[in-house]
Amino acid sequence: MNETDQSTNILEHTATSADEGARLDKVLAGAWPEQSRSRIKSLIEDGHLLQNDQTVLKMSGKVKGGDKFVLTIPPAEPALPEAEDIKLDVLYEDDDLLVINKPAGMVVHPAAGNESGTLVNALLAHCGDSLSGIGGVRRPGIVHRLDKDTSGAMVVAKNDAAHRGLSTLFSEDKDNIDRAYLAVVWGVPAKSDGEIEGNIGRSPRNRKKMTVLKSGGKYALTRYKLLQKRDDSLASLVECRLATGRTHQIRVHMSHIGHSLMCDPVYGKNKHSQKFNFETQEILNAFNKQALHARTLGFVHPNTGTFISTTAPLPDDLTALIESLNLSIEIG
């Protein structure tokens, strides 16, 4: 058996009778051809290989049929982010923090495959040396985040005191935070407003997805309100407010109650798109991300104690989608 778990970077292999008596390095190189022999050797020498639940440190050992091997591949250390002159849409700024309107498509912090062009790269250029090291050298100033393809308001700390205060707000004092998202969903919720509760954790069926779990996971609560619906009930506009901040929370919770976000590539499908007119179908086909926008962000300023309230204008493509669905509200 040869299994690869990409999400946890673990490789597993059970030796067959054909492997009996062969050298360890030969068997593993054949089991995991995507890994070079030198890479496997390095990982073994660093103690990342288990053979029958025992750590193995040498490549020259002999293999027996039925031996079980587990190789853990640690994540690659990303390079330190560099400042890049990327224009930011700033909604509010003072000496302690700033709130930006993050565009969809922008990754928040550098990671494998996204080493540049991130919000952190832009912030380092915008804030200069004052941001260096706050909250960690690879995530300076970041207190919370939005998914890559979710647009909207994000607050960033500019000094250590602000970072500590905002981190406490987001983790322990959520009563002093107001986060409202605008979502376009399939169908119409049965109740015009309500709460969605359900622990969120990684799906046991697909480790790349999050899901509502019957046991385990982390407690999550989303409050929603129906803003408008189509006459044919194919779609509706919903406001979601977060009482907790879990990975993909709104996307998972709305999908859980049967009203996934339009165009969500992970948790939803455009299953009824053919029922719309040609113009709307064209917009839906081109809208290759979840229809979600962090519209409102309000919080108590960690230094002054005043309440800061910001509203992020909707991006043009989301506005066009909403209007094409005849879901006209004040969406500025």
Which keywords apply here?
nine-stranded mixed sheet, 7 helices, single chain, alpha+beta, five-stranded antiparallel sheet, 332 residues
- The low-confidence parts are 1-7
- What does the main sheet amount to? 9 strands, mixed
Principal-axes geometry comes out as globular
SSE sequence, one letter per element? EEHHEEEEEHEHEEEEEEHHEEH
Number of helices: 7
Tell me the Rg in angstroms.
24 Å
- Helical proportion, percent range: 10-25%
Average pLDDT, to the nearest integer?
89
Report the β-strand fraction as a percent range. 25-35%
The number of strands is 16
Q: State the end-to-end CA separation.
A: 55 Å
Gist?
By secondary structure, the chain is of the alpha+beta class. It has helices at 24-31, 37-45, 119-127, 160-172, 249-256, 278-286, 316-324; strands spanning 2-5, 10-14, 49-51, 54-56, 68-72, 90-93, 97-102, 151-157, 177-186, 193-197, 200-202, 210-212, 221-229, 235-242, 292-300, 307-311.
Commentary on this structure:
The structure is a single chain. The chain has 332 residues and is α+β, with helices and mostly antiparallel strands. It contains seven helices and 16 strands. It has helices spanning 24-31, 37-45, 119-127, 160-172, 249-256, 278-286, 316-324; strands spanning 2-5, 10-14, 49-51, 54-56, 68-72, 90-93, 97-102, 151-157, 177-186, 193-197, 200-202, 210-212, 221-229, 235-242, 292-300, 307-311. α6 (278-286) runs antiparallel to α7.
